[in-house]
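Supplementary notes for students who missed Thursday's class. We covered one full example, reproduced here. Read the sequence, then the structure, then the short commentary at the end.
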Amino acid sequence: MMRAVKSLLFLFCCAAYCYAQTESVTIGRGDVLQVKVLEAPELEQNARVTDAGTVTLILGGSVQVAGLTPADASLAIERVLMEGHYVLTPHVSVTLTQTVTQNVTIMGQVRSPGSFAIGTPRPILDVLALAGGLTELADRKVTVQRHATKERIVFIVSNSANTALDASIAVSPGDTVIVPKADVVYILGDVGRPGGIAMVTNDSRLSALQALSLAGGTPPNAVPSHARLIRKQADGSHVELPLQLSAMQKGKQPDISLQADDIVYVPFSYARNMAMGAGSLVGATSSAAIYKF
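Structure (token representation):
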């Protein structure tokens, strides 16, 4: 009889160990757990996780379980039972019997934002696909807020397929995914394709020459040597600065990084350059087309 009990305990421990190696579902507030103690069947219970993230045991009081996997919760309850001298060597199993956090919420710059049902953690690229994928104006820096811990994780959806797949993280039921809108710079005046350029690079940065190239470059009659940069200040006002695009194109001056909402204006001629003031250019951005690259 004793040998049979020992064999049963050995199999129980092995199963628990293997389960702990592969389990990834975490316990959330409001979930219902079934708690069993092998050595004390009378301590079996079904308990709902409180708003504080705890379950109250028949013996041992409250135990913090929110954010833990069922296997980790089993170990936490075992420690409580041993430290309280309720059970000498307890073997506890915790089963998640009912969950209230089976949806993931996806907001922001995705094609179909909303709440989607997932039963287990899934790669973030799979989760974004549930919402139709990123829009053309989506920032590459996506924020995931964990349901159980409220921790916020920033994941970069890289423009490189291999990097995006290799660096993927898991999104769990109950998590919230927010895809912000990318910053925009404006290239106006005598360029091939005037309008806004979304800063959807991996680092959300764009230089003056990069933006000019994405806007189709300058035709022969443009005056890039008299280009201007209109930059918004912290108080909402705008400052106008000379921008030597011609010298940058020739390598005589270093390229510069643009900031969100910067306006680069390339004049058609000296006369029209004088006529277009900063106020007119700022107003023109409201109707400018926005492009991605």
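Commentary. The helical segments are 2-22, 70-83, 124-130, 161-166, 208-214, 245-249, 270-275, 278-284. Residues 4-22 have pLDDT under 50 and may be disordered. If anything here is unclear, bring it to office hours.
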